[in-house]
């Protein structure tokens, strides 16, 4: 896999600085999109560092009425389950700001992976490209719920996942194709346990995280603990 020539790596001191920088970049992208197109479409990631970023955004000065929120992946759990990415984002951020509820689009993973993937494809297909996709990375180089050694149709925008190597095994994930249809892409990478995957990514291994592209701009915000 060719290393993304447009990928910029930005080293930051710690997880707090990664969260702060991500928040600032999200707001810059939002304000530019709203000024240019009249709306801002963002895809959210799960995980602790994104959660920290979301908490910071509760204090942001922006036109929330123009924001449209989507999700990169979701666990197939009951709708109210605290482990769902949509509920984490709601607790940390979305419940505290004035984004109109019809403009927040959780993945209906409670329907099961196949039905939810089909429904979410119908939601995202007409609105692509996104303005900004936010992604993390696991210790094995997975991103969203795209894990190493999985095989998916390259033409799908949303995949049903049945064999995730960490629980729950049934999930729904935007595909490489969908995640790459974004004007801007930001990866948040923090922690010593990510070093091995970062080294593999930088040497060009065919990890899921390495296959995501952006239409214009892609940045890795990484803390000092995650540098190999």
TrEMBL record:
Q: What class of enzyme is it?
A: hydrolase
Q: Among its keywords, does the record have Hydrolase?
A: yes
Task: List, for all copies, the residue spans of the domain called Glucosamine/galactosamine-6-phosphate isomerase.
Answer: 16-219
Q: Where are the transmembrane segments?
A: none
Enumerate the Gene3D superfamilies for this protein: 3.40.50.1360
Pfam (any one): Glucosamine_iso
Q: What is its EC number?
A: 3.1.1.31
Q: Name one GO biological process term.
A: pentose-phosphate shunt
Q: Which InterPro entries match?
A: 6-phosphogluconolactonase_DevB (IPR005900), 6PGL (IPR039104), Glc/Gal-6P_isomerase (IPR006148), NagB/RpiA_transferase-like (IPR037171)
Any one Gene Ontology molecular-function term assigned to this protein's record: 6-phosphogluconolactonase activity
**Catalysed reaction(s)?**
6-phospho-D-glucono-1,5-lactone + H2O = 6-phospho-D-gluconate + H(+)
Keywords, in A-Z order: Hydrolase
Q: Pathway listed for it? A: Carbohydrate degradation; pentose phosphate pathway; D-ribulose 5-phosphate from D-glucose 6-phosphate (oxidative stage): step 2/3
KW Hydrolase (keyword) present: yes
Function as written in the Swiss-Prot or TrEMBL entry: Hydrolysis of 6-phosphogluconolactone to 6-phosphogluconate.
Q: Which family does it belong to?
A: Belongs to the glucosamine/galactosamine-6-phosphate isomerase family. 6-phosphogluconolactonase subfamily.
Name of the protein in question: 6-phosphogluconolactonase
């Amino acid at each position: 896999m060719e290393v993304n020539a447009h990928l910029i790596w930005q080293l930051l001191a710690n997880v707090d600085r990664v969260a702060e920088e991500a928040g600032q970049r999200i707001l810059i992208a939002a304000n530019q999109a709203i000024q240019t197109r009249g709306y801002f479409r963002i895809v959210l990631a799960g995980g602790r560092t994104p959660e920290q970023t979301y908490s910071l955004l509760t204090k942001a000065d922006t036109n929330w009425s123009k924001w449209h929120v989507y999700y990169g992946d979701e666990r197939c759990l009951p709708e109210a389950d605290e482990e769902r990415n949509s509920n984490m984002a709601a607790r940390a951020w979305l419940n505290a700001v004035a984004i109109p509820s019809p403009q927040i689009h959780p993945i209906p993973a409670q329907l099961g992976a196949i039905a939810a993937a089909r429904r979410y494809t119908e939601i995202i297909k007409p609105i692509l490209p996104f303005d900004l996709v936010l992604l993390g990375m696991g210790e094995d180089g997975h991103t969203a719920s795209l894990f190493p050694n999985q095989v998916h149709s390259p033409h799908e925008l949303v995949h049903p996942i049945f064999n995730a190597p960490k629980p729950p095994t049934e999930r729904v994930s935007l595909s490489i194709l969908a995640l790459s249809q974004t004007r801007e892409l930001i990866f948040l990478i923090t922690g010593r346990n990510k070093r091995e995957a970062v080294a593999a990514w930088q040497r060009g291994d065919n990890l899921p995280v390495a296959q995501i592209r952006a239409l214009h701009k892609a940045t890795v915000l990484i803390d000092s603990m995650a540098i190999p």
